[in-house]
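This part of the workshop introduces the protein records we will be handling. A record pairs a protein's sequence with a compact description of its fold. As an example, a complete record with its sequence and its structure tokens follows.

_____
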Amino acid sequence: MVKEDKLAFRFDCGAAWLNLLATRGRTFSAAPVERLATPGRLAEWLEHCELSPAQPPDQDDLHLAWALRETLRALALATVDEQPPPAGAVASLATFLVRHDDPVRLTSDNRLRREPPASTAHALARLARQAVDHLTGSDRLALRRCPEDDCRGVFIDPPGRRRWCPSPACASRGRVRALRARRSTAAPKPNDDHTPASAQR
């Protein structure tokens, strides 16, 4: 079994909004892992995504991030599973985007940049709009879901070759379980007749 730092941020899902979903690990297990446990951790995550707001996140911002994350998760899973999106999640996301308009203002020095978000809510709005673009366009077809029941992490896999999410632990657990299943299937049943033919004369 692969050992990993459960609290380490994941930035390998293919898009910033998907990495936001990965800030909660083993989401569907009895003991999910919260990687955004404090406003400070949220600030750290936003900095890595180059979305640091003018004002540092507070506790209300943290709860807003959690709520948006789970709204996007519900919509992502429905999209991957080709199911109708939950009406509540659609309404929640639409309301969030209306409340937190974030106009595009560009700057340039050595490269093209966008002005930093004024608040954490505006930073999250950028992630929400990225998710909307992804989920409503042809890029949605490259989304995959981890088959591990306690994970169900969503990630981008254009070739469609990856079975598990990028977490080494999910792939390790899945392979171990598959190996045990194969061995169980190949094992002879207790009531199998293995009497040699020569002894049956």
